[in-house]
């Protein structure tokens, strides 16, 4: 323990030396209202207790300085903090415009204050409009910002403000694991996120055993006992002010009917607060014998009141956050806290549209005692935050860096909301079949259509359009949103223009064909086109063995031999779009003739067509069939018969396959010596038959420096369609440029 303490001191000393000898971190804490001060005060006490490391400046603004809200700046003075600056920033008003004007007024006044203070870092809390003005001013004046309680989710405009402050802030202190994940998903740097817990919990978890009866009697009367009163705290919902006022009226009616002593706190300063106060006065709450209406309760006393209440009701974040630490029953009304993590002590009444519904909730909750919840903290947030502050290196660049992690899909639990699956239309033009599929972001083939590939250009293009239109219509029924069309085709392709320059002999009338324009015009979607070998490599990069690999090669072993090369995470097309024609690497000067017109190509030895040719030769000489094989008279000889014969002991068939495997292996060795990938992926129907032969040739023929390469068989069922889909998904979602 002593060792780690000394180690911690040495690290802190190193950071101070890095920041400048004996330089104290000048911290500005700006507090806007009673709620944020309850979270900031523990941090302020911690900073004040370590003057050797920190200088503290306190700025007070917002509703702290308004008499209607109890002039709560006085409690900051009572806590013995020197207030450096008081800024009157609240513009009185009834509507949303008053909040906007208040933000504007704060923006006008804050620059002068920050210029005088010149803090190293400003601590901003939460999601109030005042806090947005603070964060905006500090960010524009190149002052580092530490944001408390970012990453949380709730209702109303607060959500948008909280996330806006997150994007302005340089450092983040969050309270829950979910909030931390939200910040990471929002592209914030994980190294600048601290999961500390809520600072107010440092007080909460040590407060319950203190003398509380005198506090309860002071606020609610001498005759009140524990668990026999209610605390009510309800604020306007700025995105639906009229509805929130109506809900407040129903809440007061229910509380009057419930007939229990109730402490009602005035709402916050958001638009609609004056109307809520008028509702209180209209119903005579301030003079009702069962009610005590107050503008403000000091946080230490408020803790005791909610800890020993029979129930808390309203829509304050305090109800779903802090009160859980005591197991006090809570009734959360409306949508203001939608999305907050809560303990089992919270009963949600989302649509509190009748007095009876709220009254029933009170009958269910009042007087219960739930297990204490520590979702938002364990009582040790402040020490973690102080350590985090000490670790900040002021010599690091001020400019934020954003990270882009994969975002976990969020499946909505609201039955009225349908989450569409982002998908692509994938088209595969093969020598025999034309296939169209709906492919999801995860590589799932949701729906697939197959037709024979027509022999003429006109018929082929007409069928492509017909199948794509049919698939796009079906996508709506299977809840998929089509982002674009990706096309995989044989031959040489200009992917920039979406043109097939010339094709293989397997696909007739398929040269100088513009595929992008007619399909894009018909479907009103972006269209990408590439060679089938390149698409196979793209499929591996996104969904297969190539995921995360910087340099790899994919070889397709099917009717022909093709492939794609990925170098430094990018697909290589070459200067005339002829790169990675791997099937036409020459491995013998006097080998068999290839369809390309040359001799000795890999494709002339190892393709399905080449094996079929050799199988026919053996069959014509009555050397193919062996015991255990049978063929129908009309059956067409294929590569499959050659493989079957080899497995059943046909020496000549086995020799042909070994020669084919050797030719493919020599081609792979040439690839290794040329582009030096770390991985070779064999794809297609013949891959499993060739993999061992390829590895043997590499061990015999390759330079020692490349023999460590991994050679694997693809695990993708349909690389052509998946590769065509990845053309769309990679670009339209801006993962890869």
UniProtKB/TrEMBL annotation:
GO cellular component terms listed in the entry, alphabetical order: cytosol
Record keyword Phosphoprotein present: yes
Transmembrane helix in keyword set: no
Reaction catalysis annotation: an N-acyl-D-mannosamine + ATP = an N-acyl-D-mannosamine 6-phosphate + ADP + H(+); UDP-N-acetyl-alpha-D-glucosamine + H2O = aldehydo-N-acetyl-D-mannosamine + UDP + H(+)
Location of this chain's protein in the cell: Cytoplasm, Cytosol
Gene3D superfamilies: 3.30.420.40, Glycogen Phosphorylase B
InterPro entries: ATPase_NBD, ROK, UDP-GlcNAc_Epase, UDP_GlcNAc_Epimerase_2_dom
Binding sites annotated in the UniProt record for Zn(2+): 584, 594, 596, 601
GO molecular function, one term: hydrolase activity, hydrolyzing O-glycosyl compounds
Any one of the GO BP annotations: UDP-N-acetylglucosamine metabolic process
Keywords: Allosteric enzyme, ATP-binding, Cytoplasm, Hydrolase, Kinase, Metal-binding, Multifunctional enzyme, Nucleotide-binding, Phosphoprotein, Transferase, Zinc
EC number: 2.7.1.60, 3.2.1.183
Active-site residues (renumbered): 532
Main subcellular localisation: cytoplasm
Domain UDP-N-acetylglucosamine 2-epimerase: 53-390
Pathway: Amino-sugar metabolism; N-acetylneuraminate biosynthesis
Residues bound to an N-acyl-D-mannosamine: 492, 504, 532, 581, 584, 603
Family: In the C-terminal section; belongs to the ROK (NagC/XylR) family. In the N-terminal section; belongs to the UDP-N-acetylglucosamine 2-epimerase family.
Subunit structure: Homodimer. Homotetramer. Homohexamer. The hexameric form exhibits both enzyme activities, whereas the dimeric form only catalyzes the phosphorylation of N-acyl-D-mannosamine.
Listed name of the protein: Bifunctional UDP-N-acetylglucosamine 2-epimerase/N-acetylmannosamine kinase
Species annotation: Himantopus himantopus
Gene that this polypeptide is encoded by: Gne
């Amino acid at each position: 323990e002593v060792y780690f303490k000394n180690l911690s001191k040495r690290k802190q000393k190193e950071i101070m030396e890095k920041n400048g000898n004996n330089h104290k971190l000048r911290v500005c804490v700006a507090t806007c209202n009673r709620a944020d001060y309850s979270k900031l005060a523990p941090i302020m006490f911690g900073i004040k207790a370590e003057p050797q490391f920190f200088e503290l400046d306190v700025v007070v603004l917002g509703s702290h300085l308004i008499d209607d809200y109890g002039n709560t700046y006085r409690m900051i003075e009572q806590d013995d903090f020197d207030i450096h600056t008081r800024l009157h920033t609240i513009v009185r008003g009834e509507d949303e415009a008053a909040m906007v004007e208040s933000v504007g007024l704060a923006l006008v006044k804050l620059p002068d204050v920050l210029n005088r203070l010149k803090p190293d870092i400003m601590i901003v809390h939460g999601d109030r409009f005042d806090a947005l003005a603070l964060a905006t001013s500090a960010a524009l004046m190149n002052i580092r910002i530490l944001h408390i309680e970012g990453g949380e989710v709730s209702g109303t405009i607060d959500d948008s403000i909280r996330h806006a402050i997150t994007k302005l802030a340089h450092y983040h202190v969050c309270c829950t694991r979910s909030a931390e994940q939200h910040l990471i998903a929002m592209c914030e740097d994980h190294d600048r996120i601290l999961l500390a817990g809520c600072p107010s919990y440092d007080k909460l978890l040590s407060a319950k055993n203190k003398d509380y009866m005198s506090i309860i009697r002071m606020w609610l009367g001498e005759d009140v006992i524990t668990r026999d009163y209610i605390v009510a705290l309800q604020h306007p919902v700025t995105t639906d002010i009229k509805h929130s006022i109506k809900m407040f009226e129903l809440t007061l009616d229910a509380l009057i009917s419930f007939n229990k002593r109730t402490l009602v706190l005035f709402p916050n300063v958001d638009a609609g607060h004056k109307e809520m106060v008028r509702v209180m006065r209209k119903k005579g709450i301030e003079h009702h014998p069962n009610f005590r209406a107050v503008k403000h309760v000091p946080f230490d006393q408020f803790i005791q009141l909610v800890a020993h209440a029979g129930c808390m009701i309203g829509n304050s974040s305090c109800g779903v956050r802090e009160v859980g630490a005591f197991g006090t029953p809570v009734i959360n009304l409306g949508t203001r806290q939608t999305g907050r993590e809560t303990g089992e002590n919270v009963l949600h009444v989302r649509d509190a549209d009748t007095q009876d519904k709220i009254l029933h909730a009170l009958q269910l909750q009042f007087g219960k005692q739930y297990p204490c919840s520590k979702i938002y903290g364990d009582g040790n947030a402040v020490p973690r935050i102080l350590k985090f502050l000490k670790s900040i290196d002021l010599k690091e660049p001020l400019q934020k860096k954003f990270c882009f992690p994969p975002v976990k899909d969020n499946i909505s639990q609201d039955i009225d909301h349908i989450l569409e699956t982002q998908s692509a239309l994938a088209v595969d033009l093969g020598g025999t079949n034309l296939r169209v599929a709906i492919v999801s972001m995860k590589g799932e083939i949701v729906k697939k259509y197959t037709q024979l590939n027509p022999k003429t250009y006109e018929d082929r293009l007409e069928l492509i359009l017909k199948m794509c239109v049919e698939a796009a219509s079906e996508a709506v029924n299977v809840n998929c949103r089509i982002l674009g069309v990706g096309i995989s085709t044989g031959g040489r392709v200009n992917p920039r223009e979406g043109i097939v320059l010339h094709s293989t002999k397997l696909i007739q009338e398929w040269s100088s064909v513009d595929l992008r324009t007619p399909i894009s015009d018909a479907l009103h979607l972006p269209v990408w086109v590439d060679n089938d070998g390149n698409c196979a490599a793209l499929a591996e990069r996104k969904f297969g063995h190539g995921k995360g690999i910087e340099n790899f090669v994919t070889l397709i072993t099917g009717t022909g031999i093709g492939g794609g090369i990925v170098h430094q995470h990018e697909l290589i097309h070459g200067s005339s779009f002829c790169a990675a024609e791997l099937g036409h690497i020459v491995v013998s000067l006097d080998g068999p003739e290839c369809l390309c017109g040359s001799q000795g190509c890999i494709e002339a030895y190892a393709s399905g067509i080449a094996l079929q040719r050799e199988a026919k030769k053996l069959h014509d000489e009555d050397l193919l069939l062996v015991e255990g094989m049978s063929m129908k008279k009309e059956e067409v000889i294929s590569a499959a018969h050659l493989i079957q014969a080899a497995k059943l002991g046909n020496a000549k068939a086995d020799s042909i396959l070994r020669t084919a495997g050797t030719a493919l292996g020599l081609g792979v060795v040439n690839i290794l010596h040329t582009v030096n990938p770390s991985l070779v992926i064999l794809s297609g129907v013949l891959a499993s038959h060739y993999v061992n032969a390829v590895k043997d040739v590499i061990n015999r023929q390759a330079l020692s420096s490349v023999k460590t390469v991994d050679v694997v068989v693809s695990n993708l069922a349909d690389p052509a369609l998946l590769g065509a889909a990845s053309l769309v998904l990679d670009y339209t979602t801006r993962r890869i440029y």
